[in-house]
Amino acid sequence: SWWYNWAATPNAGIASGYLTKYQMDYYPMLWNGSFNAASVEAFLHANPTIHYLLVMNEPNVGGQSYLTPQQAAKVWPQYEAVAAQAGVKIVGPQITWGNMPNYNDPVAWMDAFYAAYAANNGGRKPTIDYLGFHWYDYGLSGQLDRLDKYNKPIWVTEFANWHSQSDGAQIVTPGEQATQMTSMVATCESRSDVFRYAWFTGRVSPDPHYSSLLAAPGQLTQLGQQYITLPH
Q1: Which of 16, 70, 104, 125 gives 20 to 30 Å between its CA and that of 229?
Q2: pLDDT tens digits for range 86-128
Q3: What's the rounded Cα separation, in Å, for the pair 52 and 6?
Q4: Alpha-carbon distances, residue 65 vs 59, 75, 79, 123 (angstroms)
Q5: C-alpha–C-alpha distance, residues 146 and 113, integer Å
Q6: Cβ(79)–Cβ(59) under 8 Å?
């Protein structure tokens, strides 16, 4: 029922009238502080069915947003201003385990972010309507439990199982990924704190973990067929 493309506007080639035709809500994403607020606000006002704004993709992962908690705290008021002006909810940051020194743990990053934001804003907490989370291994439920302390509903905006440790539990067949999908979707569906979720990904090549939902244009993979038939 919803989709995003890690950008502030839909893909140039998307069919016009996609919302009416496919009943698929699009949600824009802002990565850091490098965006034109007026342009983003104009797009949101021109598309009043958009009620959510995704922000800050994997801030502790190199090659992604990659912002220290202190840098993120300085950027965050820009998101708050856009959200208030356009009347949308903030979904983010999209946290996960990363490779930032001292902040590879998403909880360590979030705690430092909260502290830095409060220090910059008279003790006030940042406006976070929903927290984003990414996970690519076993143990999704336990990871979500660690986020309970923030008391925020969660969007699991990326998930699949790409277990990579050489312990015999690697995902190396379509069937193994299908089993993991069933389990991970069931976890998301059973938790009251998970508001929405999105499998990763539509199509990726190479695809060593067999996680693509799409094959040839307009065709679902076997995993994609499974995804749309799982209980929801």
Answers
A1: 16
A2: 999 999 999 999 999 999 999 999 999 999 999 999 999 999 9
A3: 13
A4: 5, 11, 14, 25
A5: 16
A6: no
